[in-house]
Amino acid sequence: MDDCEDVSIDMEKLAHTLSEKLETLHHWSKDCSIYRVAEPKRCLNPRHFTPQMVSIGPFHHGKEELKPMEEHKQRYLKYFLQRTKVSMASFLGFIKAKETKLRNCYAATICNLGSDEFVAMVLVDAVFLIEFFLRYYKSNLRTDDDRIFKKPKYLEIQDDFLLVENQLPLFILIDLFDLAKTATYEDVFYENISFVKITCFWFRDQLLGFLPLDENSLEIHFSKAEHFLDLIILCLQPSQSRAQIILKDQSIPSMKELHQAGVKFKPAAGSTKNLLDINFNQGILEISFFKVYDDTERAYRNLLAFERMHGYKGYFNDYIIMMACLISCPKDAELLVQNEVIRLGNTETVPTVFGKLDRDCTLYSSRFQYSGVVTDLQAYRKLPWHKWKAALKQNYFNTPWASISVIAAVILLLLTATQTVSSLIAL
């Protein structure tokens, strides 16, 4: 009997301990939008998800290798405060009132930062971003001690702004900017300036070259975006849904195979071009022009990770699959370079980049956004006439001299035939 009572008491203690743990579980809020990458995926590509120069937000705050930029972030805060009548205490109090909402934006419990540390971190990081965009927008704000704009550090820093784990919620950036704007020493300084305006100015100037977006989409989606990475994903959403066609044959032809079938390639035209725009019409495959640079794979991998974790439709996932199939070897990349669809130095880079990214993607036949395009390409490629015409043009009319030779040969053949017929008639 005593043994049973001891067991019962032990179970009560265990139940109490477990209940306490359940009470301290991290609250998963509907506002959650900033995630940690799963460790197995991170281990495969640690550099792609880890900031190299500057930490933004709590996930990488305080890391030894990122400390050199902390002093410069505080320097930016000092200059920012000098231009406004709002005291540091007022800014901190403003953030403190929103602390719960801010913490709910993160998918993991931020145990390493107490309330005061968290609030201070948000102020320093938020003002750093605001000051960065202000200095990019107005070059006269740059100071001689600016390590970003006066030294060759800038390009490395901007890549850190687009990491899934290195984000601050946009609402706090906008609110702090507006708070400073209403109490500035120089009213003329902030005239006609908003955080949306200075941020979109940077996005257009620095990102649209390698990540084509509809320029107007930045302002359109800014109010709905949770953070910078979310803004890009929203801008990449197609303006019009494609007809849902089940992809019965998942063998997507490569650029080389399409070229042999007579398909022509050209960059998508128009001011509303989007990176994800791939269309096929009347034998012409249109693909949005883009550049491939050193950190393309890193940027794309973070976009893929966020799209998946945030539960968006896999539009970017489908784009990576489509491009990996179209560009499966250097010859495919050469065809795109020749037709001014992509710009890069080494044609072996593109197949490698998309091939690596493709391993993280899944093709769903029932909702693949390019099903219609692929089906039309497959049908076009199967028609013998297109292959014959392409072969004739590529093998016999690929240069002016080859065309002249073929025409001369045909004329000679006709003359010979005419002479033969004439001789037979004379007999």
Word description of this protein:
The termini are far apart. A hairpin with a 2-residue loop joins strand 2 and strand 3. This protein has 20 helices and five strands. Helix content is 55%, strand content 4%. The chain has a three-stranded mixed sheet, covered by helices on one side. Strands 4-5 form a two-stranded parallel ribbon. Helix 4 (68-82) crosses helix 7 (115-137), helix 7 packs across helix 10 (195-206) and helix 14 packs parallel to helix 17 (349-358). It has three domains: 39-200, no CATH class; 255-385, no CATH class; 399-426. The protein is mainly α.
Q: Count of helices? A: 20
Helix and strand succession? HHHHHHHHHHHHHEEEEHHHEHHHH
Structural class category: mainly alpha
> Ends: how far apart?
130 Å
Largest β-sheet summary: 3 strands, mixed
Oligomer: single chain
Radius of gyration: 29 Å
Strand content: under 5%
> Which consecutive residue ranges, at least 5 long each, have pLDDT under 50?
388-392
In total, the number of domains comes to 3
Q: Report the count of strand segments.
A: 5
Binned, the helix content reads: 40-55%
Keywords: Membrane, Transmembrane, Transmembrane helix
InterPro entries: DUF247_pln
Transmembrane segments: 396-417
How would the blueprint of this fold be written?
Elements: H1 2-23, H2 39-44, H3 46-49, H4 68-82, H5 88-96, H6 99-104, H7 115-137, H8 154-160, H9 170-181, H10 195-206, H11 217-222, H12 228-236, H13 255-260, E1 264-267, E2 278-281, E3 284-287, E4 290-291, H14 296-309, H15 315-326, H16 330-338, E5 342-343, H17 349-358, H18 371-382, H19 384-396, H20 400-426
Parallel strand pairs: 1-3, 4-5
Antiparallel strand pairs: 2-3
Helix pairs in contact: 4-7, 5-7, 7-9, 7-10, 12-14, 14-17, 15-17
